[in-house]
Design brief:
alpha/beta; Rossmann fold; five-stranded parallel β-sheet; 5 helices
Length: 135
């Protein structure tokens, strides 16, 4: 069964790459992207039925208005969204970002890939995290 995935990413080039690489996959349905954590929260709050919520949220760390870590913290503090698997990705990750995000409830913290194979592996890893969390 396909999983509904939402990307929260402010960089248009990264968003375009993401959608180019994943639009052909049969195991995911790409929801319209958000460009920051505030837009994500507005989108989620507008979803009427819990069955229509995303199955996986992918957050960029570095975004205006609300970065990935702050959005993750909000999501995990809200009962309605707390069980949605969230992964954080960034151009650069360090041990403090990884530790902070894991402590806040991220299923994974990843470095943004630079090529098609990297994006495919990243999505496979994200979906594996989804499956592990849902077990």
């Amino acid at each position: 069964m396909s999983k509904k995935v939402i990307l929260v990413e402010d960089d248009l080039d990264d968003r375009e790459l993401f959608f180019t690489f994943f639009s052909q996959r049969k195991d995911i349905v790409l929801l319209p992207p958000a460009s920051n954590g505030v837009e994500l929260i507005e989108f989620l709050n507008g979803v009427v039925s819990d069955e229509e919520l995303p199955d996986l949220i992918i957050l960029d760390q570095n975004m205006p208005k609300m970065n990935g870590k702050r959005a993750l913290s909000y999501l995990k503090s809200e009962k309605r969204f707390a069980n949605i698997p969230v992964v954080v990705y960034s151009t650069y990750t360090d041990s403090s970002l990884i530790i902070d995000c894991k402590n806040l409830g991220a299923g994974m913290v990843a470095v943004k890939p630079i090529d098609f194979q990297g994006y495919q592996k990243m999505m496979d890893d994200f979906l594996q995290i989804f499956d592990e969390i849902r077990r």
